[in-house]
Specification:
The complex is a heterotrimer of chains A (355), B (501) and C (304).
Chain A: E1 2-6, H1 11-35, H2 40-53, H3 55-80, H4 88-102, H5 111-140, H6 144-164, H7 197-215, H8 217-227, H9 229-234, H10 239-266, H11 277-287, H12 292-316, H13 322-338, E2 343-347
Antiparallel strand pairs in A: 1-2
Helix pairs in contact in A: 1-13, 2-12, 3-7, 3-10, 3-11, 3-12, 4-5, 4-6, 4-10, 4-11, 5-6, 5-10, 7-8, 7-10, 7-12, 8-10, 11-12, 11-13, 12-13
Chain B: E1 6-15, E2 18-28, E3 32-37, H1 44-51, E4 59-64, E5 67-69, H2 74-79, E6 82-85, H3 97-102, H4 113-126, H5 142-155, E7 160-164, H6 172-187, E8 191-196, H7 199-205, E9 208-213, E10 216-222, H8 228-236, E11 255-265, E12 271-281, E13 285-289, H9 296-303, E14 311-316, E15 319-320, H10 326-332, E16 334-337, H11 351-356, H12 371-384, H13 400-412, E17 418-422, H14 430-446, E18 449-454, H15 457-463, E19 466-471, E20 474-480, H16 486-493
Parallel strand pairs in B: 3-8, 3-9, 6-7, 7-8, 13-18, 13-19, 16-17, 17-18
Antiparallel strand pairs in B: 1-2, 1-4, 4-5, 9-10, 11-12, 11-14, 14-15, 19-20
Helix pairs in contact in B: 8-16, 13-14
Chain C: H1 2-30, H2 38-56, H3 59-83, H4 88-111, E1 126-128, E2 140-142, H5 143-161, H6 163-173, H7 175-180, H8 185-211, H9 223-233, H10 238-260, H11 268-285
Antiparallel strand pairs in C: 1-2
The chains are: A mainly alpha (355), B alpha/beta (501), C mainly alpha (304).
Chain lengths: 355, 501, 304
Amino acid sequence: MLRLERGSAPLWLRALLPIAAVLITFLLVSLAIWAAGANPLDVFYEMLIKPLSKRTSRLEILVQATPLILTGVAVTYAFAAGYYNIGAEGQLYAGALMGALVGPKLTSVPAFFAIIVMLLAGFLGGVLWALIPALLKVRLKVDEVVTTLLLNSVIVFFISALLNGVWRDPISGWPRSPAIAESAQFPSIISRSRVHLGFILAVLALLSLWWVLKRTRFGLELRASGLGKEAARFMGVPVAKTMLTAALISGGIAGLAGVSEVAGVHYYLIDGLSPGYGYTGIIVATFGGLQALGVAIAGLFLALVDTGALSASRALGIPAYLGDIVQATLLIVTLAVLLLNRYRIVRSKPMRKAP
Amino acid sequence: MPIPFLSIKNLSKRFGSLSANEAISLELYPAEVLALLGENGAGKTTLTKMLYGIYQPDEGELILAGSPVRFRSPADAIRHGIGFVSQHFSLVPSFTVAENVVLGREGSALLNKKVLNDKVRQTAEHFGLALDPTSLIRDLSVGEQQRVEILKSLYRNCQLLILDEPTAVLTPQDVDKLFETLRNLQNQGLSVIIITHKLEEAIAISQRVAVLRLGKLVGVEQTQNTNAKALAKLMVGRDSVPVTRNEQHHQEKTTVLAAKGLTVKDKRGLTTLDNVTLELHAGEVLGIAGVAGNGQTELVDILTGMLKPEKGQVLLAGKTLDLGNTRAFEVAGVGRIPEDRLKGVIADLSVAENLTLEHIPQFSKTGHLNAKAIRQEAENLITTFQIKAKPNDKTRTLSGGNIQKIILARTLSKNPSAVIAAQPTRGLDIGATNFVHEQLLAQKERGAGVLLLSEDLDEVLRLSDRILVIYGGKIVGEFMAAEAELETLGLLMAGSKDVAA
Amino acid sequence: MDFVIALLGATLRIFTPILLAALGETLIERAGILNLGIEGTMLLSAFSGFVVAQLSGSLWLGLSAALLTGILLCVFMGLLSVTLGLNQHVAGLGITLLASGLALFSFRILYGGSSTPPSLERSFAQLALFKGTALEPIFSQYGITYIALLLVPILGWLLMHTSFGLRLRSVGENPEAADIAGLNVYWVRYQALIVGGALMGLAGAYLSLAQLGAFTHGMVNGRGWVAIAIVIFGNWQPSKVFYGALLFGFLQALQLRLQAQGIPLPYEALLALPYIITIIILALAGRNASYPAALLKAYRREGA
């Protein structure tokens, strides 16, 4: 008799699970497309294959992937440590805000230094916004899920107040921050494209994630804290300190995502700078299995879905919100499929262990 | 002879190759209190879980009021008039007494609080339980909470009430009140089973005592015809110590580890460890004998750096250790084997990671992990300690014995000056058990002091040079192992006071 | 005086959907589930209510569709978090993302990208109480508002004075005890989700079928997150949740009035206030916050 038993899934199964998740997701999404009166295969072709065939859209995927990879890395740092940071969105805005505050003042600074200042400002903004819930968690054991979630709205209100108040353009009435100095703008890294320095930042963040988690003492202690708090403490890991540090790194990297959107794409801060990159980061991290390579693939894949959904909407009249449906379905299916990770299939009679 | 309320006929239960209960036959009469006595692992819990429908017997049957019955679930057992009060209360702290009692048996969709409170109050008064139905559980003492648990069973019209080690969590005053309650129930015609390892209590409350040893019922005595000594003998099952023991007496008495005045209070304010002072000498195995739940867990947690006690200090070679700081203990040279081995390793990390995390500063001088050194260390330890695994295997996939070897390997290979070994062989097969014993004795030969805490009395007797007995959070006796009498040990472990230790 | 009366009337209009959502979330959290799917559940309910009302011409059919949508999404939350035991906050976020995506996707398909958003020919009418008195402007409200007000004592009573409430609270506080008492913990949690989901659906229906008579993208606009904050603010008690929703509605209404009068004020500060107060409450209460003890914990029988 075949049955499921608690244990570790074999490697081939674990490698197969993400692929299964993608297939199930597209099967489910086909229903929505079919209901919309279109042929799912046509849509998937427009969405997933066509964007890869043209240089411009291939490069556009990299632009889209930049904030997704950064927030994905940010969320992974926190989740891997067992700290459920739902606040990457707010930390992203905090980073963007710092960038928008510092950026316009860097007119007489050489580009190299201006960009470094921008990065530091963005990182610091994210760290500061992550500090409150992280301290509440470590010192007072206040659940971080609700606090990080609520702080997302608070910073959006704060920025909105600035945009509609002191920053409102007196002539045009546009709610946007003063433009950052030209020297503070991220340069394009590929000619004739919008791909900017932020993408390199995202790649560096991925490398840091891989290196820290796999190659450093801190990373091992971080994973240990996330996988078994009590046992980690038994083995001498300073669990609270590790968790706090992970939460702050997470906030900082989310802040980088914000500053990268300001300095690499818009050059000023606007309402709706992020269409929910912080939340998508949770999908990227979960689907990526909380690992650098997985996050890279997930970030690129979700960027493809986003870009592809736009072009499918142009070509076939399918609403671009299809991309959101694909991403959300993927998150839920991944969660469910990952359950299988904890089981192995055994062929035997049930036998109970002594209590 | 009255008609039994419940007859147990040839009840057997096996877990794999372990026979937890073997052909047990016992009759339970109305209006009597029966004490079920036995060491840890004698099969008391298994037997009662079968009576309460949690386990299904492999063989044998239960006869209730003349007709055979099967309890498929606790709910089934409740319907047949069985009540069970476990050591872990299942009460909702933010609910009132009455709400907890009626939960699942409200009687109607609308709660008429006054009517329910009155009903609960009447039941409580009928059985002489002093409880206010309107008070919140979280404001009650442990003794009162236990009364609520008893009341829950009575409210469901139980005829047979089973109490699992009910006095373990109580103060002496609460124990008196509990016994008064039990006598009341008996007078009302109920049949009561009280599981205990405390001889005096068994004698104080019961009419009959049933003794279990190694899954078998070894005797049922009328309480008035027996005494503590006879029962202890039945419980332990031998007159003298049968095992060969290390007769070497170490000459020098260098103290490697000293604990002074360790005191711990639990969340409810009960003292679980009471001014414990002990000295561990170099080159000895010091065994701590005791029945589970008498302060061993707290003692282990302090000595492994997991718990900061209310009072007291721990010294290693004369230097005070930073209490509650696991790394400080490890660095100072305390070898630590945790009580629950799954709290000593992280199942989703690799074997190599679990072998080195405890000493990680040695493998990461600059913060960067020295992967080569880690792998080499893992391979060495795997070979030396015969761990059946590869360095990159997930620890989750290993057997209990191999997980225990990981813990032994990483801590003993550092030549600690003191080893805290808590339940080092619990749940292991014979091969793995022997391996662990050899390793611990090797540490002693090397000159380390080994503190052995075990619920397995044979293990304590076989390995120790000196034995301390712990009871109720206190050290109540000390023996050189060669001179220890099993009977005296058993009496002390059971909290008997008429022993001159 | 007119200013105050108008302000109070606006307060009730704004607070209704938040109160309903927060009451639904209260029930669900009291049963041990943190439902972050609330934001998307409200949006999809508002949408389905609008579509059905528009296509059928019946507001009541629309209302039923909204309630059903709320219930289905919460049952889906139960499937993920109760039956499968998935991480509650990630599952909830997933539902919010999915439901929002579905609502916006379907809206675009049905109504295209037309510049003038479609609206209902007729939405729920207001019901004026205290006619002819000074109070009339305050109590010219939609029927759903009165229902919401009535629900506050009703739910308080349901939680505290019925066996349904007792069981619901028991699975949120100590599911082991509930299980031992013979209750089906899963089923009780699903019941809470069904009732809570209906309330969230009603909140969505209020937005599209009463207040606006239309559907727009940003129509929920964080009200779900506000509801989560208010549940904490209200200490998981319907009566206090009512005050929390009232405070939020008042601040929001005040902000709108002040803005309309052209008073220069960072009105966003008023909007952010409930969030900040909630975080301060959590910080002050720390571990002692009266969270349902089993919140966020999937229940599994020992050894199962």
